[in-house]
Backbone:
């Protein structure tokens, strides 16, 4: 079966898996995108788990201010290298977590359901970026500031 290159590219983007692996899994499942995605995502999460002990000394601080100006979420997000800290995936993750903190508070942040997609937890978002970047990513300080509280 000939697998369309667009499908291979799409799954590579979504999972961070190498093109050759994406193609092989799609061939194994005769082009079934959903099954291939599940396998590739599981493999990515397994790789992410292996990276958990690696040192994270680079990163960024992300801030989200609610449009009212009365609530702010501040998040430290660490990576292994400055290269990943400047990556668009890392940037999006940091902004999303800061928004989550402003909306839902800082308690048990990694266990919270993501406000943009309740089928995912914040820890799932972090693991997905670890899988895609190939580096350990760690959440540092998380602070919510609300006017008058």
Residues:
């Amino acid at each position: 079966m000939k697998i369309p290159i667009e499908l291979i590219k799409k799954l590579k983007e979504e999972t961070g898996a190498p093109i050759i692996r994406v193609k092989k899994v799609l061939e194994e499942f005769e082009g079934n995108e959903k099954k291939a995605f599940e396998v590739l995502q599981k493999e990515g999460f397994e790789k992410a788990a292996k990276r958990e002990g690696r040192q994270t000394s680079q990163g960024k601080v992300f801030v989200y201010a609610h449009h009212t100006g009365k609530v702010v979420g501040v998040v430290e997000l660490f990576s292994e290298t400055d290269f990943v800290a400047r990556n668009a995936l890392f940037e999006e993750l940091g902004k999303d977590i800061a928004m989550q903190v402003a909306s839902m508070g800082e308690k048990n942040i990694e266990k919270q359901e993501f406000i943009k997609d309740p089928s995912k937890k914040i820890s799932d978002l972090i693991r997905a970026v670890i899988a895609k970047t190939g580096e350990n990513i760690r959440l540092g300080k998380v602070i919510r500031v609300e006017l008058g509280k």
Remarks:
- The longest strand covers residues 137-146.
- Helices lie at 5-15, 19-28, 33-51, 82-85, 88-104, 122-133.
- Residues 33-51 form the longest helix (19 residues).
